[in-house]
Specification:
Number of helices: 4
Helix content: over 70%
Radius of gyration: 25 Å
Distance between the termini: 73 Å
Shape: rod-shaped
Number of strands: 0
Number of domains: 1
C-alpha cells in the first residue's frame, strides 16, 4: 500500500505555489481584458446608435468631444480615411 505523508504533500504544494499564483494572475488579466473590451464596445455602440449615417455620426462626434467620441473619431479616421 502507498504511504501518504501530509507534510510531503504540503511541501509539494508549496513548491508549485508560484505557478498557481501566476495562473491566477493570468486568469485575472484575461478577465479584466474582456471587461474592458466589452465596456469599450458598449460605449462605442451607445454613441454610434444615435446617428443614421456616417456623416451624421462624424458631425455628432465633433459637437460633443468626450473620450468615447475621440476614440470613435480615431476608428473612423483609420477605417475611412
Amino acid at each position: 500500500m502507498w504511504d501518504f505523508s501530509v507534510g510531503r504533500a504540503m511541501g509539494l504544494m508549496m513548491q508549485t505555489l508560484p505557478f498557481v499564483v501566476l495562473r491566477i494572475g493570468v486568469y485575472f488579466g484575461i478577465t479584466l481584458a474582456y471587461i474592458l473590451a466589452t465596456g469599450a464596445g458598449a460605449g462605442i455602440g451607445f454613441e454610434g446608435h444615435f446617428a443614421k449615417t456616417e456623416k451624421e455620426l462624424k458631425k455628432m462626434l465633433r459637437e460633443k468631444p468626450d473620450l468615447m467620441s475621440l476614440l470613435w473619431q480615431k476608428i473612423l479616421e483609420k477605417s475611412f480615411g
